[in-house]
């Protein structure tokens, strides 16, 4: 629990508090969320020490500090998830691989997110979003947007990416088990009955069983060019790279993909809907852009969207970027120091865990004018406030471990925004907007209650 400094280095350790024995400051962090880091950053500076999830940790904020860490992947730092995350995702996951193995696995994954593959997923994603919005609109009660967005991103991952043909009932069971898994991915690694960690292990085993069944029953299309979904692309890509995947590797990769997409995309979808509700002028400007591109006629979105049409929707691009700046779903990434090094005038000793912060870096970056305001035009061609070095804006991380699903997530959010602007009427169902919490991803305390209406 008491972390020691590297005596060979003259620099001091970062300032900060290690909290209580064993649990450190985990409870403070869990209950205070974003305020926990903000208060310590104000007190101790951009690089401070704390103790979370059973281990000492140095938390790092600021574009220059984050750049040094992310560019130092493999030399200064390497990946280091909390023990619970590591165990639950498994030894074959990207999250747990380093060096050449990581590079090789990433190469296999990359094809799943190529331009060509995204183009083939587009109509299916649009269909899943349209069906979901129809269900939301036909419900006489307000929708819990965060929960239902989780269901939507889960459907996108299971049906569109993996091509699993499961019944509604099976889908619901898988979804509930997955929620249990995600809720316990960041837990204290204490394997006792009723601990979150044990629940997570049970959920993982059950998911792996269902996924193995779905993979065995799924018709695979790995011959020729006619891939049906990402799993087909993945298997084909593995073959091309001479990597025959075992069933265990496939199951872990599948869970990792759903995990990476699930809460992040749901969080961003919820934040998008909340900002469109808060800023009717932004929604109207979006509608105007759709009208100008011939996509909106008589208040309704017309026809199938093509990738080149989406690229031309510049204001839409600004809106999505601004949502991800102000409400970055992932607060940061975990690493471990492979050697002692200097950061912002203090030492990061070899063997210590380090977490780079995305949200705090956005919140404190001087390149963004009026940093707390929701202002999509800051990303317009005239202003492009993010041009000052890319580590001021990093919702998808950076360096060799940056988000592989970045283009897919952005495409999904754009399609959702187009459908919301083009085909939906929606109103906040509570008197005031809810408070936000940031663990494990940013989301509203009440899930965000919204009434959706079909168009008359
Ligand atoms: C990694 C954010 C959606 C797949 C990451 C990282 C971030 C991130 C910050 C880097 C973490 C680190 O440095 O340790 C997001 C956000 C999303 C999103 C904000 C939605 C708005 C997705 C989707 C997928 C995906 C939809 C795939 C279906 C991955 C994978 C990695 C990753 C596989 C690990 C890459 C590696 O270790 O090499 N994501 N992500 N993400 N993301 Fe995403």
Present the secondary structure layout:
Blueprint: E1 15-16, H1 26-32, H2 34-44, E2 47-52, E3 55-60, H3 63-71, E4 77-79, H4 83-89, H5 99-110, H6 115-138, E5 143-144, H7 145-161, H8 168-183, H9 196-217, H10 230-240, H11 247-278, H12 280-292, E6 296-297, E7 300-301, H13 307-311, H14 314-326, E8 332-337, E9 341-343, E10 346-348, E11 353-357, H15 359-364, H16 406-423, E12 425-428, E13 436-437, E14 443-444, E15 449-453
Parallel strand pairs: 1-2, 3-11
Antiparallel strand pairs: 2-3, 4-8, 5-15, 6-7, 8-11, 9-10, 12-15, 13-14
Helix pairs in contact: 1-2, 4-9, 6-7, 6-16, 7-11, 8-9, 9-11, 11-14, 11-16, 12-14
The chain binds protoporphyrin IX containing FE (HEM).
What do these coordinates show?
The longest helix has about 30 residues. The strands form five sheets. The chain has a six-stranded mixed β-sheet, with helices on both faces. Strands 5-15-12 form a three-stranded antiparallel β-sheet. It has a two-stranded antiparallel sheet with strand order 6-7. The mean pLDDT is about 90. About 50% of the residues lie in helices and about 10% in strands. With about 450 residues, the protein is an alpha+beta fold. The structure holds protoporphyrin IX containing FE.
